[in-house]
Amino acid sequence: MEANITTSSLAGLVLTISDLFLPTYLLPFRRQLDTPGLYYSLLPGFLLLTLWTYSSTIVDLLTVSVEIPTQDVLYCNVQQWLEERNPATNHVLARIEADNIDFNRDTSKKPGVMVKYCPRRTCFFVYRGWWIQYSRFHVPYGTTIRQYITLRTLWPGWPIDDFLQTLCRSKNNQITTFRPARAEAREILPWRAVNTSLPRSIESVILNEENKNKVLACTEEFLKSREWHTQRGIPYRFGILLEGPPGTGKTSLSCAMAGYFGLNIYCMSLGDPSLTDDDLADLLNCLPKQCFVLIEDIDCANIERRDIIVNPENKGNKRQISLSGLLNAIDGPASAEGRILIMTTNYSHHLDEALIRPGRVDLTIPFTLATKQQLKSMFLQIFSKAEQVPGLENLENLADAAVADLPDYKISPSQFQGFLSGHKSDPQGAVDSVMDWRKKVLEV
């Protein structure tokens, strides 16, 4: 009797499941299920079909996931972490690592080529005893491809949170510099991290104190004014133009500002022959909400209103970036907000007025060749931090002697820094040889 009840119950279950999942045109075959014993062979299949149908729902209920888009700094941090540990997977992306060279290694050993591997699709890794699934996705999004990674683990999700927090702490007080990825890899990872290091001190930048304080104050005010811009319908963007001769510290100020405000910096050159208008727009649109974007030597790209960008070193080859494409990328309706755009130029009068009009460039900071007082400050800064250097007790007098015969506005900070770097532990030697160096520099 009990066996009959069990058999009837199983048969009813199979029939119920068949009603739910069999297509309408197959329902006439439902009567075949009344055949004795047939439901026993079909039951496993129906159970598997049920599990398959609701598998995504079951997974969502039992797991926790985090989605990280490419524009988030965590994306690069996770990628780098996996590259260093090379989790087991049959499908990887390989690249030759030529950017992060260890200058502390034994130079007597022959350097080799470092190949780094990163998971291409899905893999699993163990973090503090918990399995975490890593997946990479590429989804069409309008005219571009949206890229992101997903981390998934069993509920509760604290292992993922702890993993990401650990990554952030490991990069604490460090600034990452990004550059556009190579053309063939840009679809997967638009920006590549080229360096992560402690930021340069803003005090080490040689610049008129009034201008230095001005650019810091204006940038800080912008970073605090997102709500103000939103309420008034004003695009939340800030543009800075740094103009002046080569070697005067424009790039140094940009990197020091990134460190001062604790934001990463994304650097690019418009002379890159692989960049197109679409590439430029995509690169600027996949930036984090707040960051610095540095476009270096924008005047060297020979930007003209109706012409496309031409590399001055190879004027026969035309580039794919137009002035209109550049303007739309930095200030168009679809351009990203929240970023601080810094453009550097040696000659601002070479730039099209449309590029530097108010709204695109909100602040212009002029740079000049160094004054005698600035050169003295550099001397003191370099040698005051040296240890066990003879003559430190008379460093002020040595600094005065070093710059006594140097003219104002004739020497760039980078030139003088290069000279002092040749006397790292010998300030007296720098004083003794400064006149010979002066003649060489001024003759050039």
UniProtKB/TrEMBL annotation:
PROSITE patterns: AAA
AAA+ ATPase domain ranges (all copies): 236-371
Compartments, record wording: Mitochondrion inner membrane
Domain of life: Eukaryota
GO cellular component terms, semicolon-separated: mitochondrial inner membrane
Transmembrane segment boundaries: 6-26, 38-55
A GO term for molecular function: ATP hydrolysis activity
Presence of keyword Nucleotide-binding: yes
Record's bilayer topology term: Single-pass membrane protein
Family recorded in the similarity comment: Belongs to the AAA ATPase family. BCS1 subfamily.
Protein name: Mitochondrial chaperone BCS1
Source organism (scientific name): Arthroderma otae (strain ATCC MYA-4605 / CBS 113480)
